[in-house]
Specification:
Helix content is 55%, strand content 8%. Strand 14, helix 28 and strand 15 form a beta-alpha-beta unit. With 865 residues, the chain is an alpha/beta fold. It has 29 helices and 15 strands. It has a six-stranded mixed beta sheet with strand order 2-3-1-4-5-6, with helices on both faces. The chain has a five-stranded parallel beta sheet with strand order 12-11-13-14-15. The protein is globular and about 95 Å long.
Length: 865
């Protein structure tokens, strides 16, 4: 329903609304207040959502008729006379009995306006009465969209600010939260608050990723998680491309390129996720991809897919997407020099944007038309577009200046509210003594890790003989000891681990994606650090020590069973003499503990020796074992006994030497990670393997800049969105990377960069394919000197087979998602390459230039031996 409204498929929305009005709630049933049954509250909210959707449908029909909700005519096209305003009183009378002689063209829209106003008021009252903040925020964001369609800027601002104040960062991921954030981002963009719009759409994208990573958070009505992520990525890419276009208009193309590159990547990510069963979402992502290519100067590569998008949306009726596709196609044609065709596409985009209340697209179309006719020296046609554009710009600047002043006061109040809410959250989830997260937070976080399937390890830490410490130096001294132990725990953990104070002198450490053995090694280092700390400054004559119990989650565990397991082995550690780390073995299900450590001097601490672990003894009452021999699986672990009769047989073969793989760079995938997370992983990789580079793949421009600022020995390839930190290996062998069109350049650059940092010489040959296939092949000597070829193609997927037919060099084919809308995000190119009958070709997965480059480098280096 909401998608149909956004795409202006109003007849489809009308049909869907009949089904929505019969449901208790089209989104989610709220928690009922104490004095109302669940069904009653759900029915009230369901009615409010139905009223809201009905009101939005009526307002959009008013726009189609040329009027706003308050009866004013919408902006007319340049050269057209303005329409007369509606008489809403006549419209209300028309609902009961149309006055004699009243024109239907006036009374019907007026009736819709009057009904829409009544529905909005009813829905607002229902949303205000609920205690569900997310439902209220969702309703407010949708009402802000209705107000914008009606040109009521102040009302839209009020609704948007109130909705933003209700969207607590601690809200759990859900499809409704993603939709609300995206709707709010669109409203803020129309209000010319683009930085805020980007922030909220980025949050919508992150929330969609979090929800997809934990599908149990989504209901069956929320649809495919991949589609949810792809739609959020497409909307974010659209805002990035729009921001880049504004920077181009301002004459700063260097600043615009990173935004277009991000829009392109987001669109490609969306296309890779979308199934063929979501054609509308595929076309929307293709439009954003084409827009990004136009912004990056790849006009020819963008024109074909954009024409296809125009044809599809013209048939399906997706008006908003059609207007964006026409505008992007017009831009591409204008910059290619096709003035006549560009004028036709841009004029259609302007008409659609004006008719459907798309102010940003309208201004962009006016500016493009003005620029086009100025370039053609047609001042007579350029002037009306220039006048309309300047009128829009002056209104926009005046409104924006007023709105910024109003927004300042509103945001100030909102931030004060957010600070107060943050203080309450800190009080609820923070330990006041150590400022660590408290038990309430630890329990919630542990539940989240286990439900997400990350199988964390848990360490329960207890300060040994803490009561005697309090008796020796007093409670203030004991508090200081706890703060120091907390700091030592944090210093000894990774950035991804979390230290919490459980209660009293007990702490817990949450270690995501960590085995019990890895956690044991980490906590053993911390144990030595605590024992080796200089405690004399606090008046202690003996070192403070800790005992630790470690367990890792297994399938079927919950928070309580995992904590009970770790707490149980903690008591084993304390009964065994304290100052030790004991883990619960995942194999034998019994504690594994080091021997009691020697007396530790603060100046020098030696690691404790570890006793060997005996195999578990599995006894059976029905099958007694001989004395000294364990039953069950234990005999399988004993040394084999010699047979009574020696067995004759051939002499044993000499051992076959095992050829080990040469060390390769450590790889960090930046997708889905923040810059700080990438930097931390690179530091860890460089510390563990200083002899080889750490390679960062699919990084943003911000991350690449941060890497070059932190590490002197950094090799960066902006086109590949990759960087290598550390010494590059000496090249051996040669890899040649061939690519077809401009849309494949990013994947080809990624493959070339991966091959180089893995240790080969690399040669790039671009823009092959089509009619240039036979005449445009590189010099035969280039292919003859190659040890392996990487062929990257999406639009011309047959390129790999054609190249392989001309040479005996091994070929690694990489299908890309660049191509026609019917290629299904690269799936068509993949099938073409897999079905090639040419020998000597292996096929990588879609858009994975890195894997193809590494594989080709392995072949080249082995050949060079």
């Amino acid at each position: 329903m909401t998608a149909a409204l956004s795409d202006w498929r109003l007849d489809d929305a009308e049909e869907l609304l009949a089904d929505v009005e019969g449901d208790p709630s089209p989104f989610a049933a709220p928690t009922a207040p104490p004095d109302a049954p669940d069904a009653d509250v759900a029915a009230v909210l369901g009615r409010a959502w139905a009223d809201t959707l009905r009101a939005e449908l009526l307002v959009r029909r008013l726009r189609m008729a040329g009027f706003t909700l308050v009866g004013d005519p919408v902006d007319s096209l340049p050269g057209e006379p303005p329409a007369a305003p509606l008489d809403l009183h006549a419209g209300i009378a028309g609902l009961l009995d149309r006055p004699d002689g009243a024109p239907e063209a006036q009374t019907e829209p007026a009736s819709r306006a009057a009904l829409a106003i009544a529905l909005v008021r009813s829905a607002k009252a229902a949303f205000d009465a609920t205690d569900d903040d997310l439902q209220r925020a969702a309703g407010l964001a949708r009402h802000a969209r209705i107000e914008l369609l009606s040109r009521r800027i102040d009302a839209a601002m009020d609704e948007a600010v109130e909705a933003a104040s209700l969207l607590d960062p601690a809200l759990p991921p859900s499809a409704l939260l993603v939709d609300t954030l995206a709707t709010l981002a669109g409203v803020l963009a129309d209000l010319e608050l683009m930085p805020l719009a980007l922030d909220y759409q980025r949050r919508a994208h992150r929330t969609a990723l979090d929800a997809a990573a934990a599908p149990e958070l989504l209901g069956p009505e929320d649809g495919d998680p991949d589609v949810l992520v792809a739609r959020a990525a497409t909307r974010l890419g659209e805002l990035c491309a729009e921001l880049g276009e504004g920077l181009l208009d301002d004459g700063v193309p260097d600043s615009a390129d990173p935004h277009f590159a991000e829009a392109r990547q987001l669109a490609e990510d969306a296309l890779a996720l979308l199934p063929p069963e979501a054609p509308d979402a595929v076309v929307a992502a293709q439009v954003v991809h084409g827009w990004a290519l136009v912004g990056l100067g790849e006009h020819a590569a963008a024109a074909g897919p954009l024409r296809a998008a125009v044809r599809i949306t013209s048939a399906t009726g997706d008006r908003a997407v059609l207007a964006a596709a026409l505008l992007a196609l017009g831009r591409a044609l204008r910059r290619q020099g096709d003035g006549h065709d560009a004028d036709e596409q841009l004029a259609k985009a302007l008409a659609l944007a004006t008719e459907h209340g798309l102010p940003r697209l309208r201004r962009a179309a006016l500016r493009e038309l003005c620029t086009l006719h100025a370039d053609l020296d047609d001042a007579g046609r350029a002037l009306p577009y220039l006048q309309a554009y300047l009128a829009d710009e002056l209104d926009r600047v005046d409104e924006r200046r007023t709105r910024w002043v109003e927004l300042f006061g509103r945001r100030k109040s909102l931030l004060e509210t957010e600070r107060a809410a943050g203080q309450l959250r800190r009080q609820a989830y923070e330990d006041p003594l150590t400022h660590l997260p408290n038990r309430r937070y630890a329990e919630a976080r542990l539940d989240g890790l286990i439900s997400a399937g990350t199988m964390p390890a848990l360490a329960v830490v207890d300060v040994d003989r803490f009561k005697s410490i309090n008796d020796a130096i007093g409670h203030p001294g004991g508090d200081a000891v706890l703060r120091i132990v907390a700091d030592l725990l944090i210093d000894g953990c990774r950035d991804t681990d979390e230290v919490c104070r459980w209660a009293g002198d007990e702490f817990v450490v949450l270690l995501p994606e960590t085995t019990a053995e890895q956690a044991e090694r980490a906590l053993e280092r911390i144990r030595r650090a605590v024992a080796g700390h200089d405690w004399s400054a606090l008046g202690l004559t003996v070192p403070v020590t800790i005992s630790v119990g470690v367990a890792s989650a297994t399938r079927g565990d919950d928070r309580r069973t995992l904590f009970a397991a770790a707490d149980g082995v903690l008591y084993d550690a304390k009964r065994s003499g304290r100052d030790r780390v004991v883990r619960l073995s995942a194999v034998t299900q019994r504690p594994e503990a080091p021997a009691a450590p020697a007396v530790v001097e603060p100046a020098a601490v030696e690691p404790a020796a570890v006793e060997p672990v005996e195999p578990a003894v599995l006894e059976s009452a029905d099958d007694p074992s001989p004395a000294g021999v364990s039953s069950g699986f234990a005999p399988l672990l004993l040394e084999p006994q010699p047979a009574d009769v020696p067995l004759a047989g051939p002499a044993p073969l000499p051992p076959t030497p095992v050829r080990t793989r040469a060390p390769e760079p450590e790889v960090v995938w930046a997708t889905g990670r923040s810059t700080e997370q990438v930097l931390a992983l690179v530091r860890e990789a460089r510390a563990a393997h200083p002899d080889r580079p750490a390679v960062v793949v699919r990084a943003t421009a911000e991350t690449l800049l941060a890497l070059t600022g932190e590490h002197e020995q950094t090799t960066v390839d902006a086109a590949a969105m990759s960087a290598a930190v550390g010494p590059l290996p000496e090249p051996a062998g040669r890899v040649v990377v061939l690519s077809a069109g401009g849309g494949d350049a990013g994947i080809a650059a990624e493959a070339a960069f991966a091959a180089r940092v893995t240790g080969t010489d690399v040669v790039r040959v671009a823009d092959l394919g089509g009619s240039r296939m036979h005449s445009g092949l590189p010099d035969p000597s280039v292919l003859a000197d190659a040890d392996c070829l990487v062929v990257v193609a999406g639009l011309d997927a047959s390129l790999a087979g054609l190249v392989a037919a001309t040479t005996d060099v091994p070929v690694v084919a990489v299908p890309t998602s660049t191509g026609q809308p019917g290629s299904f995000g690269g799936f068509g190119a993949l099938l073409t390459m897999l079905n090639s009958s040419t020998p000597g070709v292996v096929v990588s997965n879609i858009d994975n230039g890195h894997a193809a480059g590494v594989f080709a480098a392995r072949i080249a280096r082995r050949t060079a031996r």
